[in-house]
Amino acid sequence: MFRDPDPQSGLGGWGVSAADDYTVTDGAFGGDASFVMAYPVPHSIRRHFDLYPYLKSLQPDLIPNPSMPGNVSITPSLIRGMIHGHVGDFKGFQAAFEGFQGPHSAVHLMVGGDLAGTCPPNAPEECKDGSKWAPNDPLFWMHHAMIDKVWSEWQSKHEANSMSFEGGSVQRFENITIHERYPNGGPPFLHLDSALSGHGLFPDGQIADVMNTTGGYLCYVYE
């Protein structure tokens, strides 16, 4: 499915040229006038595979092993270990899964381009790399569905996992010491009864309302 060049249904492959910032040229999202991303500036989807993405990290002091290949973070055995481990410890599970060299970020960084949040070359100087336009790439939605699936599998492994939740509302990346203290966010802390805004797209609720994929508000399962 990935790298399918079909102009109607294919996700396309890798960009091939630095001259056009590795713009994807095939598949249904290939770089032409009919499919242009609007954010942060008009541009076409870009992908540039990098097996060693941590070597160019903008925060090297937060990367324990810069020379580690990104695919080491997404091996089946490692994912199984996360699903079976951290019993009743959501903070530990999320820290392992969402860490700077964890499975979530590894895929973003290895694919590069939009999914890695890099600024397009025609963006203004004040543009800063980040995750804000990662959803431009359709791979984002497949990747995040898998993230949700892994979390769902972890929840179902032990009763203590099913409603386990804790974390902060402010990212703490100042240095490695602070990040290790608050790996999934610093205060103000969030809880199951913390408000979850729908921003007008869906009804407001609480975090507890969306902790169960078959709990009433949500209604889906993973195979």
UniProtKB/TrEMBL annotation:
Record key words, sorted: Copper, Metal-binding
UniProt KW Metal-binding keyword: yes
PROSITE patterns referenced in this protein's UniProt entry, alphabetically: TYROSINASE_2 (PS00498)
Classification via InterPro entries: Di-copper_centre_dom_sf, Tyrosinase/Hemocyanin, Tyrosinase_Cu-bd
Record Gene3D superfamilies: Di-copper center containing domain from catechol oxidase
Pfam families with a match to the protein in the record: Tyrosinase (PF00264)
Domain Tyrosinase copper-binding: 137-148
Domain of life assignment: Eukaryota
Molecular functions per Gene Ontology: metal ion binding; oxidoreductase activity
Protein name per UniProt: Tyrosinase copper-binding domain-containing protein
Natural source organism: Pleurotus ostreatus (Oyster mushroom)
